[in-house]
């Protein structure tokens, strides 16, 4: 059974990489375009809809804490802070997929049962009394995370555990945990790679599962995690650049661990001041990042986001859409998927033109340097000794 | 005039009939023991008729369920006298009787669909219940209202499952007079505008406060659903929800005394009775002393001999609070160790090391009469049982003499289902008669399986929890009811590999292979050739070397 599931996943990933060829081209093409002109185009195109031309009709959030164990309290606090923020700004519980890899609220080590605080002053309990955790404990796995994004679930999985988005959904993806260059650890047992994330988002694009994605990640070398994403309309922000560590903000002596990370804290400082009808843009949010306070340089990737961060409201991703659109004709789901400029053609069927094939197949040809064999002879005594040693060990072991 | 009276009577009859159609009760029983501990038992009952809608009714109808019980429990310090629903083992316990013939699918498919549906409803990892850890007991959960030839039973437990606010939230939303929670709360700074207040509608559910409940010594939250059909179309679903919380005012207060109040225990007051008129709200209080105390609060309770408790009836839209003050409030702490239960079960691990082990189950019967019990033990497949090692010893409770069994006491039946790795657990179901005033000990041995590297959980070194053994005590007489006892949960350590070892081995062997292969390959493939003499001009600084050809050419 498990094997079959994996097979399905692998096949899915394979189909995604097929399409990747086309998508990569799009990205490169768009880099060449005048972004401001593009943004202006979109604004005029989406003039009828509100919210700065995002064109979305519903908001979703996928909030993931990937760390198990008590001393990772701050990661759960990070995720819950975001949960609180999006809920306060209007995304309902039914549109939030909350994944917490461990239970710290009712952990016997927690001196304050059923609470999670993100501040040593303990002003605000993030756990509150109305919380719905969709995936918890051992359920938080790479497999389940990719299943949530791509919508490939087993038969009986309830609606509350599914990301039921369409091509008019704006999705906020927030991840936090321990990571390294192009990977993020799940539960201290497995990892997700930056290519996995990129391919999952590509599948979402193919399946028309989103309008726009804001991908946020708070971990060490966080910027390396969004590096491989190649699908359009994805905006990404990270706590630190490749090669940098991200740090925790402060410590609570009674809880006994750090309670929040610096970058999330910095985001919350701004987000806490916002209200549902706020018109601040993401550019304003990014301007508040101060590297001397965060102790790392936050990474922002906008090349896949032609609308521009100056035109995207914070509430496009953190808030719930309240407006309704009345149409005289029947609603077509694919019509409003504006995404690409008219002059860019995408071939998502996986087939490539011959010209494309050539460019893809062309590999850099290094001039091989021929080294005289004599220098290798230096190794011979070493290898012989090592071989003797190995044989000796094997013989000794077998005797 | 007569017509008017007839109309009034007809109207009254119809009103009372509609009230009877969906009867709902909610009762809070606060039971204090001499040790000072207060066990609060919130009991809610509602019946959902065919025409009404309820999430659990939907589940029961959709999956063809006759009876179902689900409990979430944490803590072991349960007071069996104070709770009417019994003490439950830590984690989740779920059992369900499901109809054999159902239009949709087989019982097994519906069982996994049911666990997934409940996982979604209660925000818990109930989807970890699979055939791998589910059992089909034969004589442990028999129910008078369920015809066992038409329905099948499935039972499973998840001893590791935690219970927290995210489970209480959906659970309390299923109540008829549910708690309404405005938003996140607990504001410490009084100067801040309290835009988030823990609010609630009415009834005893307004006392729910996650901070108090999850600070308790023991808390158990359960749902029981039973569906009865009078005809093919007319069915009603009875839903019972219980929440048992063992709170300790002696531990909580600085004074270390037995005095308590609702405000002190829960940090809240009851916001009047539920406005739904068919709901009856009562609060019962049982105290360890007959006198030497007084009740605080505006309303004074009435003593009810039948219920052996002081009874309050709640009024609509009136804040209600109460408390108890003793003249001598020193707790009797020696009382904690005493247990008055007639039949007790205790289970523990024997042996040492991570290869072999054993389990010892000790059942004591303090009753003078012999009692018939059924022991159900469901063990995961990675515990490899040796059934030939199963032994029974019975001895007298005080003299410790081994009793020789005779007569009807000897009768015992054993049903055993061996485990199939990764497919089903091993199930032992043993029906035996315990002689009066005796202790019966069952022992058996097992081997711990060496499971696959990927089958270990992320925190593998913690060990694996195995669900509680269940002891069903069959009624001795017709007036008694069958009841169940749960043993302790065991934490079994399996042989755990060093998880970094495969990586060490892979890197080491790869390095060796690369070094060896690379060099040998080069030696085999590359051709040795002499250098051109012309390149070998004598350098000026090699004046002290005699000029000669390098590789003998020339």
Automatic annotation (TrEMBL), chain A:
Statement: the UniProt record of this protein carries the keyword Membrane: yes
Keyword Signal: yes
Molecular-function GO terms, alphabetical: GPI-anchor transamidase activity
Pathway per the UniProt entry: Glycolipid biosynthesis; glycosylphosphatidylinositol-anchor biosynthesis
Transmembrane annotation, as ranges: 376-396
Pfam families: Peptidase_C13
Alphabetized InterPro entries for the sequence: GPI_transamidase, Peptidase_C13
Entry keywords, A to Z: GPI-anchor biosynthesis, Membrane, Signal, Transmembrane, Transmembrane helix
GO-annotated cellular components: GPI-anchor transamidase complex
Active site: 178, 220
Signal peptide residue numbers: 1-19
GO biological process, one term: proteolysis
Family, as annotated: Belongs to the peptidase C13 family.
Descriptive protein name: GPI-anchor transamidase
Organism: Chytriomyces confervae
TrEMBL record, chain B:
Pfam families: Gpi16
UniProt key word Repeat: no
InterPro entries referenced in this protein's UniProt entry, alphabetically: PIG-T
GO cellular component, one term: GPI-anchor transamidase complex
One GO term of the biological process aspect: attachment of GPI anchor to protein
Keywords from the named record: Membrane, Signal, Transmembrane, Transmembrane helix
Signal peptide limits: 1-19
TM stretches of this protein: 505-525
Keyword hit for Lipid metabolism: no
UniProt protein name: GPI transamidase component PIG-T
């Amino acid at each position: 059974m498990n094997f079959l599931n994996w097979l399905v996943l692998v096949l899915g990933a394979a189909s995604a990489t097929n399409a990747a060829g086309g998508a990569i081209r799009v990205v490169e093409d768009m880099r060449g375009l005048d972004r401001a002109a593009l943004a202006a185009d979109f604004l005029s195109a989406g003039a009828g809809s509100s919210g700065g031309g995002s064109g979305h009709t519903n908001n979703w959030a996928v909030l993931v804490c990937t760390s198990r164990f008590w001393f990772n309290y701050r990661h759960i606090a990070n995720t819950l802070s975001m949960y609180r923020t999006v809920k306060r700004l209007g995304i309902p519980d039914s549109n939030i997929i909350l994944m917490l890899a461990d239970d710290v609220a009712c952990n016997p080590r927690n001196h304050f049962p059923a609470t999670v605080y993100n501040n040593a002053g303990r002003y605000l309990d993030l756990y509150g009394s109305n919380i719905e955790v969709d995936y918890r404990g051992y359920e938080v796995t790479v497999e389940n995370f990719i299943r949530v994004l791509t919508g490939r679930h087993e038969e009986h999985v309830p609606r509350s555990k599914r990301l039921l988005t369409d091509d008019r959904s704006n999705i906020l993806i927030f991840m936090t945990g321990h990571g390294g260059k192009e990977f993020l650890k799940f539960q201290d047992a497995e990892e997700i790679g930056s290519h996995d994330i990129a391919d999952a988002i590509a599948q979402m694009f193919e399946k028309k599962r989103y309008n726009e994605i804001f991908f946020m990640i708070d971990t060490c070398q966080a910027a390396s995690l969004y590096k491989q994403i190649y699908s359009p309309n994805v905006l990404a922000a990270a706590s630190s650049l490749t090669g940098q560590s991200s740090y925790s903000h402060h410590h609570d002596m009674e809880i006994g661990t750090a309670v929040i990370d610096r970058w999330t804290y910095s985001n919350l400082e701004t987000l806490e001041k916002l209200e549902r009808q706020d018109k601040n843009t993401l550019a304003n949010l990014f301007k508040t990042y101060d590297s001397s306070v965060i102790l790392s340089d936050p990474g922002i990737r906008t090349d896949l986001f032609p609308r521009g961060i100056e035109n995207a409201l914070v509430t496009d991703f953190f808030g719930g859409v309240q407006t309704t659109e009345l149409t005289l004709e029947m609603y077509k789901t694919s019509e409003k998927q504006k995404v690409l400029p008219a002059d860019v053609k995408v071939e998502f069927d996986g087939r490539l033109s011959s010209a494309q094939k050539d460019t893809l197949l062309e590999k850099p040809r290094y001039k091989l340097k021929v080294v005289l064999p004599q220098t290798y002879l230096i190794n011979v005594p070493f290898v012989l000794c090592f071989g003797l040693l190995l044989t000796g060990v094997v013989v000794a072991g077998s005797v | 005039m007569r017509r008017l009276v007839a109309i009034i009577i007809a109207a009254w009859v119809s009103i009372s009939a509609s009230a009877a159609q969906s009867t709902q009760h909610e009762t809070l029983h606060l039971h204090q023991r001499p040790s000072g501990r207060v066990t609060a038992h919130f009991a809610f009952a509602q019946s959902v008729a065919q025409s009404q809608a309820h999430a659990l009714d939907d589940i029961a109808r959709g999956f063809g369920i006759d009876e179902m019980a689900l409990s979430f429990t944490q803590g072991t310090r349960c007071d069996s006298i104070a709770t009417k629903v019994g003490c439950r083992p830590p984690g989740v316990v779920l059992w369900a009787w499901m109809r054999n013939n159902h239009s949709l699918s087989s019982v097994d498919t519906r069982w996994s669909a049911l666990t997934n549906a409940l996982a979604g409803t209660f925000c818990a990892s109930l989807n970890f219940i699979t055939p791998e850890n589910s059992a089909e007991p034969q004589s442990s959960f028999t129910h008078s209202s369920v015809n066992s030839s038409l329905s099948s039973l499935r039972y499973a437990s998840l001893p590791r499952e935690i219970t927290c606010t995210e489970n209480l939230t959906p659970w309390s939303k299923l109540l008829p007079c549910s708690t309404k929670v405005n938003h996140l709360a607990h504001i410490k700074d009084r100067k801040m505008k309290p835009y988030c207040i823990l609010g609630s509608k009415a009834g005893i559910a307004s006392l729910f406060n996650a901070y108090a409940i999850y600070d308790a010594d023991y808390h158990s939250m359960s749902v029981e659903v039973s569906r009865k059909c009078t005809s093919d179309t007319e069915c009603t679903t009875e839903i019972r929800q219980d929440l048992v919380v063992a709170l300790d005012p002696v531990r909580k207060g600085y004074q270390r005394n037995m005095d308590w109040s609702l405000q002190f225990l829960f940090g809240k007051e009851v916001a009047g009775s539920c406005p739904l008129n068919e709901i009856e709200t009562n609060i019962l209080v049982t105290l360890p002393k007959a006198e030497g105390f007084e009740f605080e609060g505006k309303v004074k309770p009435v003593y009810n001999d039948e219920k052996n408790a002081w009874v309050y009836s709640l009024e609509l839209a009136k804040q209600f609070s109460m408390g108890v003050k003793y003249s001598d409030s020193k707790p009797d702490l020696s009382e904690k160790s005493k247990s008055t239960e007639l039949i007790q079960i205790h289970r523990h691990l024997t042996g040492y090391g991570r290869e072999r082990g054993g389990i010892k189950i000790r059942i004591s019967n303090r009753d003078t009469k012999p009692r018939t019990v059924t022991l159900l033990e469901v063990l995961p497949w990675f515990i490899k049982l040796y059934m030939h090692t199963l032994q029974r010893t019975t001895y007298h409770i005080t003299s410790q003499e081994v009793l020789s069994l005779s007569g009807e006491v000897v009768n015992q039946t054993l049903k055993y289902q061996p485990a199939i790795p990764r497919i089903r657990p091993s199930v032992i179901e043993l029906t035996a008669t315990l002689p009066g005033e005796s202790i019966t000990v069952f022992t058996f041995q097992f081997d711990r399986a060496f499971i696959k590297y990927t089958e270990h959980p992320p925190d593998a070194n913690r060990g694996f929890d195995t669900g509680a053994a269940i002891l069903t005590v069959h009624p001795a007489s017709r007036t008694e009811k069958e009841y169940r006892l749960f043993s302790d949960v065991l934490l079994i350590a399996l042989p755990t590999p060093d998880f970094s070892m495969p990586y060490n081995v892979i890197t080491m062997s790869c390095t060796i292979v690369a070094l060896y292969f690379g060099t040998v390959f080069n030696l085999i493939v590359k051709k040795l050739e002499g250098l051109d003499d012309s390149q070998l001009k004598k350098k000026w600084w090699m004046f002290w070397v005699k000029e000669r050809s390098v590789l003998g050419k020339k």
